[in-house]
Each structure stands twice: as C-alpha cells, then as structure tokens.
Design goal:
The protein is an alpha/beta fold. It is built from eight helices and seven strands. The structure holds nicotinamide-adenine-dinucleotide.
C-alpha cells in the first residue's frame, strides 16, 4: 500500500542507487514531487528518466552546496520542503583498518557524509518547515547506530550513533513546530558494489551465521527500508517522533 504524499515536496539524498532509489520510488508512488541528489551523474539521469525524480548532482560534503540545493528546491517547488530523507552515507569506499592507521581525512570523510550532511540539510529545511508548522525528517541510520558495525569502520559506527543523537535532539527542538524527526536502522542489505564486496569477503560460514541471526532468515531488500521510511514520513505516523525503527528482520 502506498501512503498518500500528493502535493508533498520530498527531498531524498543519495537517491541514485540502493535505498535512496527505492525510497524515491516509494514517494513517487504516493504522488509526491520528489527531488533527489547524489554524486553519481549517470544514475541520476536514469532516476529522472525512469521515475521522474528531479535529480541534481550535489556533493553533500560541501555544506554550502547542500544548503544551496535546498534553497533551489524551495524556489522551484514554490513551497517549503515537507519531507527530508537523509539517506546519503556509507563508508566512503573504506574498510576496517586498525584505529592506529585511521587518517584524519578518512575519519572526516565518513563523519561528514553520514552526520554533517544530515545536520546541514536539516538546518537548511528547518526554517521552511517551522514556518509551515509541519514537516518530517527521516534519517537513514543503521544497526551500527545501536551497536558495533559489521563493516568495522570506526567512523561509520560513530557517525551513525551521532545521527541517532541528532534525531532525538531535533525531535525535541522541532516538535513544538509540528515537525517530526525519526530514524530507521536497516540491517545489512546488498545494495551496491561496496556491500557486494563486503558480503563476498565473508566466509560461507559467516554468511550463514549472519542469516541465521535474523529471525526471518533472509537479508533485507531496499524496498523493505523504503517502506519503513515512507511510513515514518506519512500522516499515519503523525504521533511518532524521536524514534529509531529497526528494519532488520528481527536480528539478534
Ligand atoms: N546497505 C546496507 O547494508 C546498509 C545498512 C545500514 C545502513 N545503510 C545506510 O543506508 C544508506 C544508503 O545505503 P546504500 O547501501 O543504499 O548506499 P551507499 O551507502 O553506497 O550510499 C548511498 C548513496 O549516497 C551517495 N553519496 C555518497 N557520498 C555522497 C556525497 N558526498 N554527496 C551526495 N551523495 C553521496 C552514494 O553515491 C549513494 O548513491 C546509507 O546512509 C548507509 O550508510 C546501509
């Protein structure tokens, strides 16, 4: 079932592939006007052609560019953003190395895309949402917001924990203005080359153990995550704020 997002302006970051694409599709199905950004130009073109998403290349590690994009969306739509989905993230091509070997640049890159961008975009959308007296922000966190990460990337785990803190704090700050802020915590989903590499790097025994630790005995799909995001952004979730919803098939 699609939720009704008719006439809503929805912004999705990291929209080109994986969860972001599925999330965009869910909002399009609900009748929203969807704006997506990413750094993958080819996939953005496809997103526009196939789903009608108004797709723009924005590097969200540049906070000024992130804010400028929101201003551009508001000008184009002629209204404030109704729904912001902070989905862009990931490990920036990194894998686990001992903490003694983590460079400042590597740390900053992961913190910036998973946490800094969510702050910059929330900041850019807040004024319009507060003036309107309505809005929803959904942050795509991770199981790594609640416990250690399967990736072993320290900055990723720290950033996702930080994103949960931002979710809780902004829910309190923006709630009096009618703005809800929530997060989803997906389990591992094979969405892209990086997650395929990660999965292939596990032994067959480890793969079996990962699936065995999931009550529903399967890995998640991008659509599973998109459905949860759409629910949290919808009017059906109008009394839910400051929450983190695990979408992991019942993982131990
Ligand atoms: N796939 C998983 O198993 C999993 C599990 C838990 C959480 N997550 C989180 O879900 C979100 C989506 O993950 P995914 O697996 O679909 O894809 P992903 O982690 O590879 O990245 C999401 C998108 O963000 C874009 N992006 C990266 N850097 C960017 C930048 N500087 N500016 C703009 N866009 C940028 C990427 O191009 C990509 O399209 C991420 O936040 C990720 O951390 C993923």
């Amino acid at each position: 079932m699609s939720h009704n997002f008719k006439d809503r302006v929805v912004v999705v970051t990291g929209a080109a592939i994986g969860f972001g694409r599925a999330i965009s599709q869910a909002f399009v199905a609900g009748g929203a006007r969807v704006y997506g950004c990413d750094i993958r130009q080819d996939e953005l073109n496809t997103l526009h052609e196939q789903l009608g998403v108004l797709a723009t290349r924005v590097d969200l590690t540049d906070r000024a560019a992130a804010a400028a994009w929101i201003a551009q969306v508001e000008a184009d739509a002629g209204q404030a953003v109704d729904v912001l989905v902070n989905n862009a993230g990931g490990v920036a091509g990194q894998s686990n190395v001992p903490i003694e070997e983590v460079s400042d640049a590597a740390w900053d890159a992961v913190i910036e895309i998973n946490l800094g961008a969510a702050m910059a975009l929330s900041r850019a959308c807040a004024r319009g949402m507060k003036t309107k007296g309505a809005g929803a922000i959904v942050n795509v966190a991770s199981g790594a917001a609640l416990k250690a990460s399967l990736t072993g990337v320290q900055a990723y785990c720290a950033a996702k924990h930080g994103l949960l803190g931002l979710t809780r704090q902004l829910a309190q700050e923006l709630g009096p203005f009618g703005v809800r802020v929530n997060a989803v915590a997906p389990g591992f989903v094979r969405t892209n080359a990086a997650t395929e590499r990660q999965w292939a790097g596990y032994s067959q025994e480890r793969q079996a153990a990962i699936i065995d630790a999931i009550a529903l005995r399967r890995l998640g799909r991008a659509e599973d995550i998109a459905n949860a995001v759409a629910f949290l952004a919808s009017d059906e979730a109008s009394f839910i704020s400051g929450e983190i919803l695990s979408v992991n098939g019942g993982s131990r």
